[in-house]
Specification:
It is built from seven helices and nine strands. The protein has 214 residues and is α/β, with parallel strands linked by helices. β5, α4 and β6 form a beta-alpha-beta unit. α3 runs parallel beside α4 and α3 packs parallel to α7.
Length: 214
């Protein structure tokens, strides 16, 4: 994660290490004792390196070609995994509604495995998001268990996909504004997929379609 941070555009304020393996990671790195590292780190077992960076400002609310809107995702693990996948699959914009978990929650940051450092992330109300979406030349879709199979969907060139929480799903405001509903077809058995797995599968499909049209 520290290597991903150093490769990003974020400003690194301080870089500390206790493990000599990381002694040449940066000229600005400062060595501290193992005891001090254990006191600084939130992890039970520290890897021996720690970075402090300036957090991302809330970035402008606009829409690109590939957009993911997270509607009240509250679980830190799910949020972190979604951010990690969004970075991997080249999502242009990640937009969070106000009731989503804080992206700087330690569990979220750890789960992103550095993906957090490379994304355009905005936080806005549902009304603000829909206002921007209305003026945007693209299609708003929602993910739900009752919709068209995502493997058969003709993904639009510009798409904003809304993924809701596992307990509540996508809110009525987004449902009313959406052009269509997409689902991941069940082939085997099981009640459902969690939000992070569902979002990752759909992002993979959207990204693959985008690569083919370039």
């Amino acid at each position: 994660m520290v290597e991903e941070l150093l490769a990003s555009k974020l400003v690194v304020k301080q870089l500390l290490y206790s493990n000599d393996e990381f002694s040449d990671i940066s000229d600005s790195a400062v060595k501290i004792s193992t005891k001090a590292m254990d006191q600084c780190s939130a992890m039970k077992t520290t890897p021996g390196i720690l970075a402090v960076a300036q957090t991302l400002d809330n970035q402008p609310l606009d829409l690109g070609n590939l957009n993911l809107i997270l509607d009240d995702i509250k679980d830190p693990g799910n949020m972190g995994t979604i951010i990690r996948s969004a970075s991997w699959f080249g999502i242009d914009r990640l937009i969070l509604t106000p009731d989503c978990v804080d992206i700087y929650n330690p569990k979220v940051v750890q789960s992103t495995m550095g993906g957090l450092f490379h994304l355009h992330i905005s936080r806005a109300s549902k009304d603000e998001i829909l206002k921007v979406e209305k003026a945007w030349d693209g299609s708003l879709l929602i993910a739900d268990m009752n919709g068209e199979s995502s493997s058969r969907v003709e993904w639009p060139k510009s798409v904003a996909l809304v993924v809701g929480s596992e307990s509540q799903g996508v809110s009525e405001k987004f449902r009313d504004a959406a052009e269509s509903v997409v689902s991941i077809e069940k082939i085997g058995k099981g009640e459902s997929l969690n939000a992070a797995i569902s979002a990752s599968i759909l992002m993979s499909q959207i990204s693959s379609r985008s690569m083919k049209t370039k």
